[in-house]
UniProtKB/TrEMBL annotation, chains A, B, C, D:
PANTHER family: BINDING ROSSMANN FOLD OXIDOREDUCTASE, PUTATIVE (AFU_ORTHOLOGUE AFUA_2G10240)-RELATED (PTHR42840:SF3), NAD(P)-BINDING ROSSMANN-FOLD SUPERFAMILY PROTEIN-RELATED (PTHR42840). This is Inositol 2-dehydrogenase. Residues 129-249 form the GFO/IDH/MocA-like oxidoreductase domain. Residues 3-118 form the Gfo/Idh/MocA-like oxidoreductase N-terminal domain. It comes from Hoeflea prorocentri. The keyword Nucleotidyltransferase does not apply. Belongs to the Gfo/Idh/MocA family. It is an enzyme of class 1 (oxidoreductase). InterPro entries: Gfo/Idh/MocA-like_OxRdtase_N, GFO_IDH_MocA-like_dom, Myo_inos_IolG, NAD(P)-bd_dom_sf. The gene is iolG.
Amino acid sequence: MLKTALIGCGRIGRMHAEIVNASSRTHLTLVHDVHGPSAASVAEASGARVAETAEAVFDDPDVDAVIVASVTSTHADYIEAAVRAGKPVLCEKPIDLDIRRVLACRDAIAGTDVPIQIGFNRRFDPGHTAVRDELASGDIGRLLQLLITSRDPAPPGDDYLRGAGGMIRDMTIHDFDLARYLLGDDEPVEVWACAQALIDPDLKQMDEVDCAMIVMRTGEGRQVLINNARQSPYGYDQRIEAMATGGMLQSTNRTPHGIARFTASGTDAGAPYLDFFIERYREAFVHQLNAFVDTVEKGTPASPSFEDGLKALRLAEAAYQSLETGKATRVET
Amino acid sequence: MLKTALIGCGRIGRMHAEIVNASSRTHLTLVHDVHGPSAASVAEASGARVAETAEAVFDDPDVDAVIVASVTSTHADYIEAAVRAGKPVLCEKPIDLDIRRVLACRDAIAGTDVPIQIGFNRRFDPGHTAVRDELASGDIGRLLQLLITSRDPAPPGDDYLRGAGGMIRDMTIHDFDLARYLLGDDEPVEVWACAQALIDPDLKQMDEVDCAMIVMRTGEGRQVLINNARQSPYGYDQRIEAMATGGMLQSTNRTPHGIARFTASGTDAGAPYLDFFIERYREAFVHQLNAFVDTVEKGTPASPSFEDGLKALRLAEAAYQSLETGKATRVET
Amino acid sequence: MLKTALIGCGRIGRMHAEIVNASSRTHLTLVHDVHGPSAASVAEASGARVAETAEAVFDDPDVDAVIVASVTSTHADYIEAAVRAGKPVLCEKPIDLDIRRVLACRDAIAGTDVPIQIGFNRRFDPGHTAVRDELASGDIGRLLQLLITSRDPAPPGDDYLRGAGGMIRDMTIHDFDLARYLLGDDEPVEVWACAQALIDPDLKQMDEVDCAMIVMRTGEGRQVLINNARQSPYGYDQRIEAMATGGMLQSTNRTPHGIARFTASGTDAGAPYLDFFIERYREAFVHQLNAFVDTVEKGTPASPSFEDGLKALRLAEAAYQSLETGKATRVET
Amino acid sequence: MLKTALIGCGRIGRMHAEIVNASSRTHLTLVHDVHGPSAASVAEASGARVAETAEAVFDDPDVDAVIVASVTSTHADYIEAAVRAGKPVLCEKPIDLDIRRVLACRDAIAGTDVPIQIGFNRRFDPGHTAVRDELASGDIGRLLQLLITSRDPAPPGDDYLRGAGGMIRDMTIHDFDLARYLLGDDEPVEVWACAQALIDPDLKQMDEVDCAMIVMRTGEGRQVLINNARQSPYGYDQRIEAMATGGMLQSTNRTPHGIARFTASGTDAGAPYLDFFIERYREAFVHQLNAFVDTVEKGTPASPSFEDGLKALRLAEAAYQSLETGKATRVET
């Protein structure tokens, strides 16, 4: 059992705690949160100890690995601390909102072999993984076009938005990584973005958007669309469509149960989709943890890696630059 | 162009008139209805002449073939008249409500080679036909179980019901024929029926039912369910499920257009199904007419035949007998 | 944490062990199996102790409740032992293959308030439960017809079949219980059955069947179909269709992930269904355990109860009698 | 009956001839094609006369209206001729490949009240129309994002491509018009295009593309994606997705019949989609003709109009300009 510590006991931290404890491979030993009562509450529910500081977590000899689910601005610091302490880390995305901080972090940890896995959970969704595997197998031919739909159930509050770094760095970054995961070696080289505050026009005042269509061209010319909206009345909408020379694959949404209704107002109607990522991607979070444990215990490469985290951010940067210029923007490498 | 006459200008007769005139292979020349204005109205819309009597239709030298869409009690008489006149006939189902009249008719026309086709239109539905063809091809293995769902959108009025001979002779008869069509040579040999007036309990007073489940066993032991209801709030429900050793085939319902709605009250909801047989089975009626023209012009065997009409009625008789005895009833042959 | 013991460490027992240990409400303390190594293996994986005898389980003061997953012939004995020991029991279905043994057991435990829950897991499937709740709410009107499809992925081996008591007692019994669950207070009063060995005709030699259609009529006249097959090439097929005066509800199958394939050989094709009950009904087994814990800890009535187990068996008996007589058979009460 | 003439007797001309003759409102009287045998063949099948020249068609006093289905380079000439002759015209798209010719034509016909309808058939598809009506009703809230998928079953031959004016003028132009139809008064003002020869890289030699993603922004900021491919192994793929504040609407593909297959290789698989526009949009072509007859007989405004034809072409021009510059391009008005 991997003795696992958790830094950050908010909503997503609590979910990690639960998953760590439900697994037969991991065990939650130590938790920390800047807000003491949050840490105490998770500790009580899970039988873990509380660390007063993040440093205490990294110093603790009884900790094999650390999950970082604290606010974004702390991620790079904690990654550096984990590397110094020699403790494998599974860190929530993004590494940082400022790409300069990410690059500095990269310099600081250069040459390390301490495993660093970034929390792009969608790579571990069974449906998305199956699309990736089918594409990689070649059975469906050569990939031509990729369309990723990602629509949140409801907009976050203004407080969240103010710290999130913009929709494209906060939300689309998952889709950038998912696109890269599905594309394999053929990286996006050019990004064009269209984004507006259409759902809530007041967002313009904080220079924020809530709907986006982003097109990327890969090195081999493939076309990728990312379609985002911050509000979806029918539930969290997470779909992939991969058009290939031999056919098309879709990874579709899932309903909480298999009920279909047939009435005078419609036929074969499913339930609204699972509400949000904690429900929709539960299996993905479990598989993500398993991959992390494999990395720690069996030495499989950490994936998605720190470099993946950086590359997703570079795509977000290119998208923001395109928004300003109206031009397709080359991705920095 | 086959010079075609029509006897019976009610709802289904008018539909036949339209289909005959829209076809490049047929032309409506003569119409008759006991209710003069109905005949006149169809004649005017289609450019056909009006015959004062049914006899005049069969005597007319300018008529190549006759479609009979008059009330059931006239069907056997008109089939006999058509045979005497040597005119091919496409006659709506059923041949008669009384099996003795059907048998007498069979005697009367014994030895004829005048084509007689019974209007079991569902055999010509593209989906149902495709199921039959797949089963016949053997690609899906040996058929084990067959489930036919047939639910009308809304119950007919009491007037209709009083003349209809009971739901099983009037409505289920289509499903008996469809089952036989799908089963090929393996005929149902035993019938068990369960039927009640569940939607409108007042029907019990006229000894009528509105919901039925009828199970048949074939000579080779296959199992067939027919599931009927006289009311379906989500539209006319017409489905086939064929379970075989290699997989399952369904012929599913069709919506008027391909709209899917995703809202807080449901996802991927289609429109209610097409309202009733004239809409749902329009293609089937067109293919049915083509098969009739092929029979007349090319000498292909009339199908479904008079014998098919008789056999469907024998299944209905067995079902009614089972309702009385509570026992599985052998089908007469 | 409910200190839970397990008797029977075969396939389904191992699944119970896993679910008990994954729950934050239960803890596996003691296991027993007549085959020692099976018990040892489960004990090792779960940290439980091994009991040499079943008696030792019931005598153990450190056991709060017992799950019985041993062979059917032991169920009634263990239920009686649990009652004598005052330990709540969750017992796999059926109570016994011989209804006389079930009735003797009922006499033996008469008057007890020790909770006895029978393992009809399907009642706890989220989709099936949602159908039940919608029906109970009345939103979809009055239920008219119920169709339950239950097809196993592949036939069991001959050894299993010889001890299983016949398909209708072994497999259909789940559907009998599910029907009763969905029907609420309106119990089936009459059963008619059609069953043959169609998939593997050799089964006739052991007087066994592999395909069945069973129709039941309820006290209020509702119609129920149960449709079974022992082989389904496309995966475990578990569906409900509830036709009501206001519309239709279906509880449909689930695929392992949301992939849809579109190729020249077909469009919108999902993956084959989850293989069998352990995968398909995993959530149901978890909810079943929670209901059991609620009964033990909060005193909610045990459900499905011993009486439910008896009633399902009476429906199976009526079905077998109908098979012999060809007649609809009254259900004993 | 509207006495209708047809200029152009190729594949799409023959389809128009059939539809004109199947309608009870129209009658084909006169046909012309530069290739005499094509005209003769349509004339024979439909009972129409043959005109030796296009001029003879416009001069014929026995012609009420003209359908133009000849090669694109003749469209503007024939529109001008129709206006001079005072004969209503239904002209296939596009008006011309060269926008200067379209503008000259506009000048030439300025002030006319002779009805000119452009053959953007997709506006008349029942599913697409239903989406438009639902959006217009406001029941689904405010439209935010529109995604149009349009993939041909197989690439056309090189000969066709050389005369087609480029995929975006030839194929995407339908989608530009469809987008405008669905958007109502909120016109696209900015276009950004990504297009490559991905399916057949040899197309680069003739400066042609076969895959495209085109994003448009409307005056009110709405986002529109058009997704094209010249090859779709699973059949002609024609879909709309409209994301709105109250939910999402899709207009989905249709299969030739309602068969679903369930086997070890997939579940609920439909047939491949209808092959191409003549099959997929048959109903649309019929409704299109009815709209044209309404315009001629009842004076309803011609729609889609000459201006609609021009505006779709302006969007194509903007897309081509964007391809060259990599920038979002303002649409000329």
